[in-house]
Amino acid sequence: MSAIPGIAVFDIGKTNKKFFFFNEDYQIVEEDCHSFEETVDEDGFACDDIRLLTQWVKGKLAAKLKDPGIKIKAVSFSAYGASFVHLGASGKAIAPLYNYLKPFPGELETAFYAKYGGADLFATETASPVLGNLNSGLQLYQIKEQKPALFRQIHTSLHLPQYMGYLIHGQLFSDITSIGCHTALWNFQENRYHRWVAAEGLDQKLAPVFSSKDTVNAMIEGQPLKCGVGLHDSSAAFIPYMQVIKAPFLLLSTGTWCISMNPFNKAPLTVAELRQDCLSYLTYEGSPLKSSRLFAGNEHEQEVKKLADHFHVNPACLHDIRYDPELLADAPGVNPTAAFRFSEGATIQKAYHELIAHLVRKQERSTRLVLSNTPVKQLYVDGGFARNGIFMNLLAKAFPQLEVYAASVSQATAVGAALAIHSAWNTKEKIDHLVEVKRY
Predict the structure, then answer these.
(1) Which of 79, 285, 394, 411 is the most buried (most CB within 10 A)?
(2) Options 3.40.50.1100, 3.30.420.40, 3.40.640.10, 3.40.50.20; which CATH number does 4-229 get?
(3) How far apart are the first and last CA of the chain?
(4) Which string of DSSP letters, residue by residue, matches 47-102?
(5) Which residue ranges does the record assign to the Carbohydrate kinase FGGY N-terminal domain (predicted)?
(6) Do the beta carbons of residue 413 and residue 10 sit within 8 Å?
(7) Could you report the per-residue pLDDT of 59-78, keeping only the tens digit for each?
(8) Domain 233-408 classified CATH 3.90.1150.10?
């Protein structure tokens, strides 16, 4: 039996580190998921263990290249953003993989924005809301200001997706999707690094930008491989939708964060939008992707726990509640800026409907920030809320002018990383079966 040709993809999340092998029809032939014990940085703050991650990626690929049942023609990478791996002159990591959730020093942040025109102007230029260490460029700035000895030792700082690629092909590159995800590094108005990057000497620590659609040649275990440079996970997950859907659309990607992404909104971000948690990503083709964020998945998780405690049930029971519009017939009006409270005397079914109505009203407000004045006629929802019938029915009512679909792409982030370099490994031209949809 001949070996199955295809692509290996490493998809590195904060919790789960995944390996996939896809055949040319983008079917998953092999899948492996690992999680590692966290370590701590020099301040005792938890972070991913870059040593364990490095060993796993190298070891996994070496083992799969020896598997007689598959033929790996290429390898691609996606990973969470806002995280740098700092390399010394020897090419080895010389600092922890600092956690983007670590609080950023307030005084340093205040001084930085004062130096570069104020927070509103800076956020507008970089399409990056003020997010502390989630603005990964500021992580490097903090090292320069507060750990100058380490800064001097850094030869190159790679965002995590590009470090994954570096482990295999050995070359130092940056990628536009990692630079363009709320890093505060990129001037979206001038389509280049913001002036502060050179002014602070950070440009000397950053690798040259390499096209997200191109590959690097490598020879691993005696086998030639085409290697992608690595993609930011949110941008990678958007690629299957970009390639398959032809009509103007907006994608609402739901999870802990619910992110409304509108590739057809070309208007620059305003200060008012930035203050309401709008931002822009850069797609793998280098185009701005105007988006708005809402912490709705997190709120849902917290409120479900409260409801379960109040009604003395297992939280899992709430996920089985079916949509019943009668339960909202006499519900009070929803104030999206107020804390959630269910009506007095409500059953658990009614209370849960009221919770989802509360979240949908907030979601409607967030999505409209990037929807207005665009030709969008279709709204696709993927992730956890796409499987929630109450959410989907109420969202369809909130946007009666749009065709609203629950959509799914199996392992969208990994598939997107493979699609980005499709021509380097896949002999088939047309891939149109990736997105499954259900209209509401």
Answers:
(1) 79
(2) 3.30.420.40
(3) 45
(4) EB-HHHHHHHHHHHHHHHHT-TTEEEEEEEEEE-SS-EEEE-TTSSB-S-B--TTS
(5) 9-216
(6) no
(7) 999 999 999 999 999 999 99
(8) no
Q: Could you say which DSSP state residue 264 is in?
A: T
How much helix, strand and coil, in percent to the nearest 5, is found in the chain? 40, 25, 35
Burial of 235 (0-12, 13-18, 19+ CB in 10 A): buried
Beta partners for 254? 383
Q: Structural domain boundaries of the chain?
A: 4-229, 233-408
Tokens of 51: 């040593």
Helix (H) or strand (E) holding 291: strand 288-294
CA distance 17 to 3: 25
Largest CA distance in the chain: 70
Per-residue pLDDT tens for 83-126? 999 999 999 999 999 999 899 999 999 999 999 999 999 999 99
What pLDDT is recorded for position 1?
67
Lookup: tokens for 156: 């190159």
Mean pLDDT (whole number) for 257-285: 90
